[in-house]
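Sequence in, structure out.
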Amino acid sequence: MEIRKVNIQDIEKLKEIGKLTFAETFSSENSEENMTEYLENGFSTEKLKTELTDENTVFYFAELSGNVIGYLKINVRESQTEIKVKNALEIEQIYVLKEFHGKKVGQILYDKALELAKEKNVENVWLGVWEENPRAIRFYKKMDLWHLTNTFSNLEMTNRPT
């Protein structure tokens, strides 16, 4: 497996893996109309282009045999989402295709985020996870993240990079 930084030429691959993994994760918890609307807006070419050109946001693909099987999205400084934490790195998204769950892909992407946190010399790493996503919550607790606060039906979790 290879982890590589996503660039603007990868926008269609990012859109595809984003929509697919989000739908796999959340379609059973949402109406078809809500999912369609979110997938179209949340992974629009315009939105992804803006994010890919933001110097405070970066995406990484997990690839196996040239195929994208997951991705990581991190934010720093003013590009952080729900909470703006000084000198921190937000893991906004770690998504992996369902068929690769349990195969350490999420762990490798998480480790990449911690590596980036060390490179950026941040004091904290944090993320938001939907409280109705027990699989993700178990994963993050296993990664030694702890519960910070609840906002907008998300659990905010944080960790100091070692």
